[in-house]
Amino acid sequence: MKSKKIVISMIIIALTAAFAGCSQKTESAVADEPHVPAMTNKTAGDTFEAAPDGYDGGDYDIAAPASADGYYDDAPGNTAPPATYDPSEVSKPESEPPRAGQLTAGVWSDNDNWGFFSNLVNTDLISFPSYGIDPRFRTVVNVKDSKGQPVVNAAVTLTGSDSKVIWKSVTDKNGCAYLFSPEGSSPVSAEIEFNGKKQTCEVQQPKNDNQSAVKSSDSVTDVTFDYEGELYKKTDIMFILDTTGSMSDEMLFLQSEFTAITEKLGTENTRYAVNFYRDEGDEYVTNCHNFTDNIKELQSALNAEEATGGGDMPEAVADILKESVYNASWDDNSVKLAFLIFDAPPHKGTEETIAMTIKEASAKGIHIIPIVSSNSERDTELFGRALAIATNGKYVFLTDDSGIGDSHLEPIIGYYEVQSLYDIIIDIVNEYKQ
Question: Using an 8 Å Cβ cutoff, are 311 and 350 in contact?
C-alpha cells in the first residue's frame, strides 16, 4: 500500500525557520506488503487493542513507555500506572535492528515538475548553484523520427553563440534530452547524433519575464531527426554507499535487500556494481567493485562492510562520484543508473571536480538517483536534487514513517507518496529500462 502526503512549501519554510532540522511524521499504511511489515510501535496516547494477560479493566491509554512485551516494567499485576508514575523510571526496550523492507521513502522529479521548481527558485525558497552544479537554466530537446516515434539514445550537444559546447546529454526512452547552461549564457543550437548520423537545429530561447529578475528558466525545442534510434537491451545498475558511522541503518538495508533486488530485476542483460566511500583519514576514501552479474561476489563485498569513520559532516562525495563516472566499466550500449545513498554533502573546494564529473555523467547518459538519508540538512537535499536534475535522475529521500533511525528532513517539494525504499528502487529501474 501507499500512504499519501502533500507538502505545502510555505508551511515547510515557516516550520524550518522556527524549528531548524525538524521534520513531520505521517502514518504510513504499509501492512500486508511483502517487503514492508506492519508498524507496531506504541507511543503515549495509543491504546492496546487487547489488554495484557491479567489485566481486567479493558483498553487503557498508555501514559508512559511500555516494555517490549507491552507490560509496564514496574506495574505489578499489569495494571495501568498510578498517577504519580515517573516515565523516566521505566526501562526502555532495546531498539530492534532494521529488517528487510522496513525503510520508507518518497521520490520526486524536479524535471517533471519544472514549474514548481522554478517558482521555488524565483521566490528564493531554494537557491543554486549547489557544490558546482547549477540546474536552474534548462533547455529541453525532444527528438522524434519521421514517423513521430521517440528517437532513443541519441547524443545531443548544446552549443552557445561562440560555438563552444555548453552541455551534452542522451535522449531517454521518450526521446527527451535535458541540457543545462550557466547563468547569463545563450545556447543557440543543438546537434543530434546517432550511429554517426548528425543533424543540427536551432533551439528556442527562454522567454524573458520583464516583471522580475529571471532566476530560473527553460525552453523546449522539438526536432524531427531523419534517422531512428535504438533501444538498449542492457542495463547497468550501480549502488554507491556512504559507509561512515551515521549510515548503519542504510547499510543494513542494502545488505539485507541487495540480493532480493537483483532477484526481482534479474541478471539477464543486467549487471550490478557496489561502490563504497568514507573520507580522508579513514580506513579508505573509496572502495569500488566493478560491474558483474556475480551477485554472490557483490553480496559478500556488501556484508564485509561496516558503518564507521567519518566524524565531520562533509564526506568524500566528489571522489566517489569521479571514480564511479570515469573509472567504472559502464557499457556504452546500456541504460545506466547510479543510486547514491548518502547523508552528507561534499567538501567545500570540490565544486570544480563535481561540476566536471556531472557534465560527464550527463554526456554518458548516467542517471544519478540520490537517496538522502537521516540527519541530512537542507544543503544536502539541494545537492541531491541538483544531481538528479542535471542527469535526468530522480530524487529519493527516506522518511520518518518507518520509525527507524534518526529524524529525516522533510524536503521542499509537492505531493508525494510514502512507499518502501525497496519498491521505489524497483519502480525506478523498471521506469528507465528499455
Answer: no
Cell numbers that stand for 63 in this block? 501514559
- Taking only the tens place, the pLDDT of each residue in 376-394 is 889 999 999 999 999 999 9
Strands (DSSP E) found in 52-209:
104-108, 137-144, 155-160, 165-170, 176-180, 187-194, 197-202
Q: How confident is the model at residue 347 (pLDDT cuts 50, 70, 90)?
A: very high
Q: SS3 letters for 305-355?
A: CCCCCCCCCCECHHHHHHHHHHCCCCCCCEEEEEEEEECCCECCCCHHHHH
Q: Tell me whether the CATH fold assigned to 104-109+232-432 matches the one assigned to 134-224.
A: no
3 state SS of 129: coil
* C-alpha separations of 97 from 71, 191, 403 in Å: 21, 52, 11
Q: What is the pTM of this model?
A: 0.78
245: amino acid identity, one letter: G
Domain residues of the chain, as ranges? 104-109+232-432, 134-224
d(CA 248, CA 396): 18
What is the CATH topology of the domain spanning 134-224?
Immunoglobulin-like (2.60.40)
Domain 104-109+232-432: CATH superfamily, name plus number? von Willebrand factor, type A domain (3.40.50.410)
